[in-house]
Design goal:
Elements: E1 4-5, H1 14-27, H2 35-48, E2 53-56, H3 59-69, E3 76-79, H4 85-93, E4 97-100, E5 123-129, H5 138-148, E6 151-155, E7 163-164, E8 167-168, E9 175-179, E10 192-196, H6 199-208, E11 213-214, E12 217-218, H7 229-239, H8 242-260, E13 273-274, E14 281-283, H9 287-299, E15 302-303, H10 324-332, E16 333-335, H11 344-359
Helix pairs in contact: 1-7, 2-7, 3-4, 3-6, 8-11, 9-11
This protein binds pyridoxal-5'-phosphate.
Length: about 350
């Protein structure tokens, strides 16, 4: 039996990728806002229905560029402990302090009702995550941000293709960032983007990602966040399949739903969200049950992943803060295999093993 992992990167037909690569050979430009990158940015803007989008080297630098473009250089950042480590590490790398707010048990996103009591005079921004592609409580977060004059950044690394209240989930907050890493729903091998609400901030970010200068005029401190034509080529080739990719994931997710029924915990369906099926998280009754299921699956060459574990407030390099709900959920949640090439028979096999383990 072939091994099954939690994900497998989508690869377009090789000749379709090579058609884009040919263009690089024809015009000789390898990076620095080349024609393929411009074409990809244009397509993404239309797909997402957004005005200001910057395609950058990865989803982590996208978050850090967001901090810089918004002028956040110190202070406290309200954030979620239930995410990939890059959410927290970006805050620390920008020399800010993460203040962890516990999550909602229903959708694993930051609980807005717990934000206000952690706001101090040093609070600068809220960095929330649409975890697994589910929507944060955007309305409440925006109310709070307005009341306390805070910036809002969404780490929307998982949210490409999710639609909330009839617009892209990436079109909220001062800046939303997304990752196009090979493991993500839509990928460009490595890559990411910033979607920026304000045109002035967007122009700033554009400069910052290219060392802060245009030719010999230096305007502000920058870094290298520029993406290459080769990555853009992969993005363009994959972009042609985005609807198919989401459709396939929906079909597989619905099969998981049917086979697993109510025997396992699942995030609550959200009003007004057209989900992108980026992940299939399942919540076990206990860590012991999760580990037992993982063992039984791995005996069958199936390897699920503990997304996300540990809860980020437990990282060895952050100050101790307590987030009981996130710690509890982190200890017993995992994502099941979900990717374009996964077959229905594989889903069936995964579910058979899980269901058998749950009753034993
Ligand atoms: C993947 C991911 C990132 C980082 O993206 P890269 O492109 O790998 O740098 C950031 N935040 C979350 C929630 C992620 O899952």
């Amino acid at each position: 039996m072939d091994k099954i992992f939690v994900t497998k990167s989508f690869l377009p037909p090789q000749n379709e990728y090579l058609k884009y690569i040919d263009k690089i050979w024809q015009n000789g430009q390898l990076t620095n806002q080349g024609i393929l990158l411009q074409e990809l940015e244009q397509k993404l803007k239309i797909f997402l229905q957004v005005e200001n989008l910057h395609y950058v080297t990865n989803g982590t630098i996208a978050i850090q560029l967001a901090f810089k473009a918004l002028g956040i250089e110190s202070g406290e950042i309200i954030t979620t402990p239930f995410s990939y480590v890059a959410t927290t590490s970006s805050i620390l790398w920008e020399r800010c302090t993460p203040i962890f707010v516990d999550i909602e048990p229903n959708n694993y996103c930051i609980d807005p009702e717990k934000i206000e009591k952690l706001i101090t005079k040093d609070t600068k921004a809220i960095l929330a995550v649409h975890v697994f592609g589910y929507s944060c409580n955007i309305k409440r977060i925006e109310q709070i941000a307005q009341k306390y004059n805070l910036k809002v950044i969404y780490d929307a690394a998982h949210a490409f293709g999710s639609i909330y209240c009839d617009k892209s989930l990436l079109d909220y907050g001062d800046i939303s960032t997304v990752s196009f890493h090979a493991t993500k729903l839509f990928h460009t091998v490595e890559g990411g983007a910033c979607i920026v609400n304000d045109k002035g901030v967007s122009d700033n970010l554009d400069l910052i990602k290219r060392f802060g200068h245009k030719f010999d005029d230096h305007f502000l401190l920058g870094i290298n966040g520029k993406q290459s034509e080769f990555h853009a080529a992969m993005g363009l080739a994959n972009f042609n399949y985005i609807e198919e990719i989401i459709d396939k994931r929906r079909t597989l997710s619905q099969l998981y739903d049917r086979l697993l029924g109510t025997s396992i915990g699942r995030p609550k369906e959200q009003d007004n969200l057209k989900y992108n099926y980026a992940y299939y998280p399942v919540l076990f009754n206990s860590e012991e049950q999760l580990l037992d299921v993982m063992d039984k699956l791995s005996e069958n060459s199936i390897y699920i992943r503990r997304y996300f574990y540990p809860s980020l407030n437990k990282l060895p390099y952050v100050d101790k803060q307590s987030c009981p709900i996130s710690e509890d959920i982190s200890s017993r949640i995992a994502c099941l295999p979900l990717y374009f090439e996964l077959e229905e028979a594989d889903v069936q096999r995964v579910c058979d093993i899980i269901l058998k383990a749950l009753i034993s």
